[in-house]
Specification:
about 65% helix; about 300 residues; globular; 10 helices; binds zinc ion; mainly alpha
Length: about 300
């Protein structure tokens, strides 16, 4: 049920000493923050995989909230509808070469495309460096992909599609079972993961109900409940709680800044104040994945 726990998985160059070789990714800063040294070739492969999955994630972010197929049709320019050739669809590179414009009609292509591709690649690399070339490392990549995609969708459209949260929760339950399974699959661990997901969802539903009683309008979405359930399924309740806490603090700060800006810009005063909590929840989940265990340990040590 826990992603963050240290595991003794296979690592190269894990002799503990200051052993260095040309074949290891040896950036001082990266090494200072991560547990594993990974051969350069594996790092390059991981980054390339991240770019490709990031590119696919962009398609999902554009289409899933609209309930469109992610397979067909081929990518098209949203303005002039001309199909985008494979050459113009290379992650990051094409965007830079085309200077962020469509080849056919010169209209702007969102900066979101290269940003998501680069962020996915960075998170994939971080996953492998933090959790090793292991089942856990691959699982961390999958979870990052889901969280980043959902965060971006919520920021853009205020929607958290079931098409990601529901299978994402099921994957978290399955991961927990396989991770804890000594021989094959640990039903108990999978059951605990499912229970954590249910508790997390119930907690958000309770807040949602209380808010409705007090204000008679929707304060927190059903999508947020499913997203927190997904985080709990993968990482357990402690890390899900941390992700929620960070998300609420960040969303509140964001809300206060919006209110302050709105007072200045009188023209925008009619705009409803809507905060994409899911975007902050996604970011909080990614933080909990990489730093959650250390943060929780630090917190509990304060009371020891
Ligand atoms: Zn175009």
């Amino acid at each position: 049920m826990v992603l963050g726990v240290q595991s003794h998985v296979f690592t190269l160059n894990d002799s503990g000493g200051e052993q260095r070789s040309w074949a290891t990714l040896d950036l001082e800063i990266v090494a200072a923050y991560t547990r594993y040294r990974v051969p350069e070739l594996i790092s390059i492969f991981t980054v390339l995989a991240g770019l490709i999955f990031g590119s696919f994630l962009n398609v999902c972010i554009s289409r899933l909230p609209q309930h469109e197929s992610i397979v067909r049709p081929r990518s098209r320019c949203p303005v002039c509808r001309s199909p985008i050739s494979s050459w113009d669809n290379i992650p990051i590179l094409s965007w830079i070469l085309l200077r962020g414009r469509c080849r056919a009609c010169r209209s702007h292509i969102s900066r979101r495309y290269p940003l998501i591709e680069a962020t996915t690649a960075a998170l994939f690399l971080l996953s492998i460096l933090q959790f090793g070339m292991s089942f856990q490392g691959v699982a961390a990549c999958v979870l990052c992909w889901l969280l980043l995609g959902l965060a971006a969708m919520d920021a853009e459209t205020m929607l958290l599609p079931d098409a990601l949260t529901v299978p994402g929760t099921a994957l978290g339950v399955a991961y927990s079972g396989f991770y804890a399974g000594e021989h094959f699959f640990a039903w108990r661990a999978a059951g605990e993961s499912l229970l954590a997901a249910a508790v997390a969802a119930a907690f958000i539903m309770l807040i949602r109900w209380l808010y409705w009683l007090a204000r008679r309008r929707e304060g927190i979405g059903l999508g947020d409940a499913k997203l927190l359930a997904m985080i709990a399924a993968w990482m357990g309740l402690w890390q899900a709680g941390l992700a929620l806490f960070l998300a609420v603090v960040a969303a509140a700060a964001y809300g206060l800044i919006l209110i302050a800006l709105r007072r200045r810009l009188a023209t925008a005063s009619k705009l409803a104040l809507r905060i994409p909590l899911g975007a902050f929840l996604g970011a909080g989940g990614i933080f909990a994945l990489f730093e959650g265990m250390d943060a929780l340990k630090w917190y509990f040590d304060l009371y020891r």
